[in-house]
Design brief:
Layout (H helix, E strand, L loop, with lengths): L8 E3 L14 H10 L3 E6 L3 E5 L1 H7 L11 H4 L5 H11 L3 E11 L2 E11 L6 E7 L1 H23 L3 E6 L4 E4 L1 H5 L5 H4 L4 H4 L6 H10 L3 E9 L2 E13 L5 E10 L1 H23 L3 E6 L4 E4 L2 H6 L3 H7 L9 H12 L6 E8 L5 E12 L5 E10 L1 H51 L4 H32 L7 E4 H18 L3 E5 L8 E4 L1 H17 L6 E9 L11 E8 L32 H11 L3 E7 L3 E11 L22 E6 L3 H14 L2 E6 L2 H11 L3 E4 L8 H10 L8 E5 L4 H9 L4 E4 L4 H12 L5
Parallel strand pairs: 18-20, 24-25, 24-26, 26-27, 27-28
Antiparallel strand pairs: 1-4, 2-3, 2-6, 4-5, 5-6, 7-8, 7-11, 9-10, 10-11, 12-13, 12-16, 14-15, 15-16, 17-19, 19-23, 20-21, 21-23, 22-23
Helix pairs in contact: 14-15, 14-19, 15-18, 16-17, 17-18, 20-21
The protein binds adenosine-5'-diphosphate (ADP).
Adenosine-5'-diphosphate (ADP) binds next to helix 17 and helix 18.
Length: 781
């Protein structure tokens, strides 16, 4: 906007008055002056207003009498007064000037343009002033509007352009031209064809201008970073009369949106492909519970034509499954549960039932609204049938395994009976005076028989472990005596192999006990020691070292565990063989080495140690030796005391031979025992081959000792024992059980129920003789 005061200019003074120039009479001039809308004044800078016309008086709301002396300068805006004074000074010698100034009128400050003339003679100042306030305000408003529009154009993130009727750009903003690396000045005045050769579509522009109808298009434009998609809105520009004077356009770059929409469509397509390719039925349900989509799998799984799938899906649910399905879905729709899993049936097109495992999850919008549910239903009919078959197969296999174990257990038991005769008679033979060859033969029989016995026992133990029937009573067992016993029993074998056995118990606190089963721990140590001998090298060594240490794992105390390590200097075990070491019957090739063995000792040892809550570990360096370590939990040392040894029975009342009744159905065993007792002498033996005969004989003869087999043809030996104890006549007769049943539970049971002793077959002749001596309380040579 131009400063209203800055265009002040002075003209040269005009000589004479208008009347003198013969142009107008005074009356005419006065009448005209009164008619004028301009403010006309004659002013004396010294004394104020001399005369003013009606327009002036109206503007200042002056009465006729108030005109004289009215001080116009007072009414000038304070900022404009200095200029007024300069002007008066400048014109004091006559002359004209125009000046803009603000004057306070009855309607407030108005912007006036004064044309001033000073009479040099009188010094009077004549002025005509036009009110330019409204014009200036309009100019100001126009200017502001332009500024606003320009700012909008400059900052718009869409391209804006305008063209005249000839298609020349008359306006373009930075956004429009900047995208093409140009400035608005580069395009204004030119046609699109000139600025963007080959791109403009003149006909399209013309159509908009001709029809006066806006037009929207998507266009591809080449920009520096590739082809962009832009949305162009073209619209006609009109003048105040409504005539079309050109064309306006707004251009927005929608490349990202197009990409996004494309990506979304692609994702939708992918998802749809996935859903349709899924072997499971995917069902979409809307917020009102209506099925909106079902994947193709439904047709195949339910044998339905596509048009029926939608409508029939729910109807096909098994009526028994419907309530739980409704309940689950109600909870899902109420957002009480995050998902539901359901097994249900649905009827196939041909009438049979298909079982499904369905999983349903809600579709929740960003603002937490339930928009629907997606359900994935898997046909598990075949899986369930397979599972059932598998279960049946497993059960059959378990049954077969049980049958195998039972067979093995029975067979082992049956084998013990003839072995009893073999070993028993061989022992008797050994006690005879024999030639060296015969002696050697009997030794062989005994050695092979005992080996066979060990094998039977081990097989029996393994079957017991497999069937879960291995009975193991755990109690505090003092470590040092078991270790010493094991070493003492192995030493003869070691010496035969030229080996030395060292025992180191220095790290073991005296009286240390472990939680174990004494007999089984001894069995494990004997097995490790005999392996240490068997698989050692000539003149190698064998050592047993016992130490205490912490258990592996949290909360363990420093001396919670006892480790018994059996180390040898043998051939060692290859690392590749270690995983098979504890497999039953796997001898890792030792069967070709000539070393006797069965391949079950370590299997059994590991099981036994684990049943005692311990661990059996091995470390081996091929060519140097192996160390097997048994680790067992330490037990608190028990308080001394316990059961007292059974007092010897009184000698038979008759000073003659002791009467022994042998209840046994196997004639070979009867004969064996007869021969054993014959060696002892001083015994009169009577035999009974059934439980009933035995009871009758005992009642009648009141023997000094009963030897009782458990497997009798009529009643069990256990029953015979019970009856003997119930009858007053036989209640005091000591009964020694002689049986092939080596089960610890059975032994314990019968000892608790009155058996004086428990001897297992095959009979150890010396053991039986010692026992008979002890029970009868006499020693006969
Ligand atoms: P067996 O000694 O009756 O064959 P085991 O179960 O005791 O059965 O041992 C299985 C196999 O492990 C043996 O056949 C042998 O090959 C190997 N083995 C066991 N102990 C040792 C050892 N101390 N040194 C080398 N090899 C051993």
């Amino acid at each position: 906007m131009t400063d209203p005061l800055s265009d002040a200019a002075t003209d040269a003074p005009v000589a004479g008055t208008p009347a003198e120039r013969g142009e107008l009479t005074d009356e005419d001039a006065a009448a005209l002056a009164e008619l004028s809308e301009e403010l006309l004044v004659v002013y004396d800078p010294a004394s104020g207003l001399r005369w003013s016309n009606r327009a002036h008086r109206r503007a200042f709301d002056l009465g006729d009498e108030e005109v004289a002396g009215f001080d116009l300068v007072e009414l000038l805006h304070p900022d404009d007064r200095a200029r007024y004074r300069d002007l008066v000074r400048q014109l004091c010698d006559g002359g004209r000037a125009s000046v803009a100034a603000r004057l306070r009128t009855a309607a407030g400050y108005r912007q006036l343009r004064f044309h001033v003339e000073v009479d040099p003679d009188s010094g009077l100042l004549c002025a005509a002033a036009g009110d330019r306030s409204d014009w200036l305000s309009a100019q100001q408003a126009l200017w502001t509007t332009r500024q606003v529009l320009q700012a909008i154009l400059d900052h718009a993130t869409v391209g804006i352009f305008a063209k005249d009727l000839d298609g020349r750009y008359v306006l373009a903003n930075q956004c429009f031209t900047g995208a093409r690396g140009l400035t608005p000045a580069d395009v204004v005045g030119k046609t699109a064809e000139e600025v963007f050769p080959g791109e403009g579509d003149v006909e399209r522009d013309r159509r908009v201008m001709r029809t006066g109808v806006a037009h929207i298009t998507d266009e591809q434009v080449p920009l520096a970073d590739g082809i962009h998609t832009v949305l162009v809105i073209r619209f006609p520009l009109r003048d105040a009369t409504g005539a079309v004077i050109g064309l306006g356009g707004v251009v927005s770059d929608i490349t990202d949106r197009v990409h996004m929409e494309h990506g979304l469509r692609e994702q939708e397509r992918l998802l749809d492909t996935l859903v349709q390719a899924s072997p499971d039925i995917v069902t979409m349900i809307d917020a009102d519970g209506r099925i909106t989509e079902v994947s193709q799998a439904a047709q195949a799984i339910l044998g339905l034509p596509p048009d029926l799938v939608h409508d029939e899906l729910v109807l096909r649910l098994h009526p028994d499954d419907l309530p739980k399905a409704q309940q689950a879905f109600a909870a899902l729709y109420a957002q009480q549960v995050p998902a539901v899993e359901l097994r249900h049936r649905a009827r196939h097109g041909d009438g049979h039932w298909v079982t499904f495992d369905s999983r349903a999850r809600p579709i929740i919008s960003d603002d937490g609204r339930m928009e629907g549910v997606v359900v994935v239903s898997r046909d598990v009919t075949a899986d369930l049938a397979f599972e059932a078959e598998l279960r049946a197969a497993v059960s059959r296999a378990e049954q077969a395994n049980r049958a195998k174990s039972e067979f093995l257990s029975r067979m082992s038991h049956e084998l013990r009976v003839p072995l009893n005769s073999v070993l028993g008679f061989a022992q008797l033979l050994q006690m005879e005076k024999l030639g060296p060859t015969q002696h050697e033969a009997v030794d062989h029989i005994l050695q092979a028989g005992r080996h066979l016995l060990d094998l039977i026992d081990e097989v029996l133990d393994i079957t017991r472990i497999e069937t879960g029937h291995l009975d193991l009573v755990l109690e505090p067992v003092e470590v040092a005596p078991v270790v010493r016993d094991a070493v003492a029993l192995t030493t003869p074998l070691a010496e035969r192999h030229g080996l030395q056995v060292d025992v180191d118990l220095d790290d073991l606190a005296p009286g240390t006990h472990v939680v174990a089963n004494r007999q089984r721990l001894l069995q494990v140590l004997l097995n490790l020691l005999s392996n240490g001998v068997k698989y050692n090298r000539p003149s190698g060594s064998l050592s047993v070292r016992v130490a205490m240490g912490p258990a592996a794992g949290p909360g363990a105390g420093p001396g919670d565990r006892v480790r018994i390590a059996v180390a040898d200097t043998g051939r060692g075990i290859a690392e590749d063989d270690l995983p098979r070491l504890f497999e039953p019957f796997d001898r890792l090739g030792a069967e070709r080495s000539g070393v006797e063995g069965t391949g079950v000792g370590l299997t059994l040892s590991k099981h036994l140690v684990e049943r005692m809550h311990g661990r059996l570990e091995v470390r081996s360096v091929p060519g140097e030796g192996s160390t097997f370590t048994v680790e067992l939990p330490r037990a608190p040392t028990p308080v001394a005391g316990g059961s007292l040894p059974r007092p010897p029975r009184p000698a038979p009342a008759s000073g003659g031979a002791a009467r022994v009744l042998h209840i046994e159905d196997n004639p070979a065993n009867v004969q064996l025992v007869a021969q054993i007792l014959q060696r002892r002498g001083g015994v009169r033996l009577q035999a009974a081959s059934s439980g009933a005969d035995g009871l009758a004989a005992a009642t009648a003869a009141r023997p000094d000792l009963v030897l009782l087999d458990l497997h009798l043809p009529d009643i069990s030996g256990e029953e015979v024992l019970a009856q003997l104890h119930r009858q007053p006549a036989t209640a005091a007769v000591p009964v020694v059980v002689v049986t092939a049943d080596a089960t610890p539970a059975q032994r314990r049971h019968l000892l608790q129920h009155g058996a004086a002793a428990y001897v297992t077959k095959p009979i150890d002749v010396r053991e039986l003789l010692a026992l008979v001596d002890q029970v009868l309380g006499t020693r006969v040579r």
